[in-house]
Amino acid sequence: MPEMASSRAGDTFPRLLFYHGQVRGDKTAMREKHLGIWQSWTWSEVAEQVRALACGLAGMGFKRGDNLAIIGDNRPRLYMTMAAVQCLGGVPVPLYQDAVANEMLFVLQDAGIRFALVEDQEQVDKLLELKGQMPELEHLVYDDPRGMRHYNQPFIHDVEALMAMGRIHNQNHPDFLDGEVALGTCDDVSVMLYTSGTTGKPKGVCLTHKAFISAARGGIAFDGLTANEDILSYLPMAWVGDHLFSFAQAMVAGFAINCPESGETVMTDLREIGPTYYFAPPRVFENLLTQVMIRMEDASAIKQKMFHFFMAVARRSGAEILDGKPVAFSDRLLYLLGNFFVFGPLKNVLGLSRVRVAYTAGAAIGPDLFRFYRSIGINLKQLYGQTETCAYVCLQPDGQVKFDSVGKPAPGVEVKIADNGEILVKGPMLLKEYYKRPEATAESINADGYFMTGDAGLFDDEGHLKIIDRAKDVGKLSNGAMYAPNYIENKLKFFQYIKEAVVFGDRRDMVCAFINIDIGAVGNWAERRGIAYSGYADLASRQEVYGLIQECIEQVNAGLVGEGMLADSQIHRFLILHKELDPDDDELTRTRKVRRSFVAEKYAVLVDALYSGKTSQFIETQVRFEDGRTGKVAADLQIRDVKTYPVVRHAA
Length: 652
Fold this sequence. Notes:
alpha/beta, 3 domains, Rossmann fold, 21 helices, GMP Synthetase, Chain A, domain 3
């Protein structure tokens, strides 16, 4: 970036936006696939539409310091609205678009929302359902007019009408918006992102322009990103990772964001865009690999042999070639052939042919999964951060990527380990405060100015940080051995057949597990063996499926033997749940993190059965359907013992 980097011209997102509108006005800033066709907006067009949106909101009475809710899938107008709100000194508050109305209510009330801009009729209906409990909601604006013809409430507006009003406002007051943008400072709150609420009510994390711009600049410089990148913006706008990659970094570097047509078309749209820069949580990479393995199992024998032969070559040398390390000439030659016949076509199918840098975060990723992507030439790296740190704490340098770490402290970030093992961080990317929660803010930052992450970790000999688990979740077995449930769960979830796992063991004499199978992978496995089933619960109860999952768990146990302090955490007993854990049933957060204490309480009868030696247990569970109705599912669940391996104690 030019000298602007150290001047006031680039210290807020609105000033960055109008800067790009001037210096690269004809370059593509945003794309959206609509009705099968990609629509594009240049930086100058985005700047004009942001101006219209901001002036329209001002005309409706939006003021400096107001909060505006943004709800919907990734859409250019929703990203533009974020910038428009910031132009006026307000704060955008994105919400998870798949949350049901009652889940949204707490955030909308907590943030005191007077204005909301939503994607479509579905989101309008959710807010109308809540209107009686939100008398302060004054204006509701929608982006997609489909289905909205008969909505005639005076407080509901079409975004096009809002922008038309804004353009008139701008003509009548041509200096108004520039004056508002000039009033903004880098220490103003630029966005409020709510935590996932794994242990209680979500908290509004207030993050400043300075915090997110610092994180964005650090990452851009670290990976050599330019204005020529393309990124697919498909993860929830309420999630800190999307805000960093699809908003902050795009605004700082000036590259293009691309919004898919829908959640169902992401893979097709990914292939069409061919992003150069890609971010996905581990579950997305897991799902991609599962799809690949399912397709290979259905392929001809010769294709299967070719795939497995060249994947063996890739495992031997792919990651080393990617890192520029020396590799035997024969392997290098075989790898070139493998790239032509297998890796290249595979990356093309996945839509990752042009990716220069790919990141994952949000949960630990299995080393074998990590190794698979790097071995076929995808520069996949892990990062570490939280909502409170703009998702920016540690990054993995090229050539120093380790499968079992999250890298080194990012530029400008200090990281240290407290005496109790908790990771503490300090830097310009820290939150300003928790909204209306001064006590929580004070509790999260210690006397030396370090944010207390709540994660337990350690540095290895080369200064790379390893995450063990959430500090509050790290416990001990009854024999005093360390117990880290998330670490074990992630090992289980590496297997394509296991979608989710919840383990128990703190202060107990052994570790036991709940398993959710992946119905796609296990269903394909069952069909190829002639095993008929009627649905998830039926498939999950099959003896053959129990045998399959038992093999996976026993492989994890064999690996844990060599894990030192965690060797005693081998799984002794397990059951396969009769239903998938679901955010709609409060078992997972909207970012698909297990609400461990809730699950343990809800399924206490199953936990008791695991530890009392029972071989089966009946349970009836209430579930919530997508349309809001509730029902019950019941099943008699099998419980199986698993082979464990003796732990060798080395003399001190």
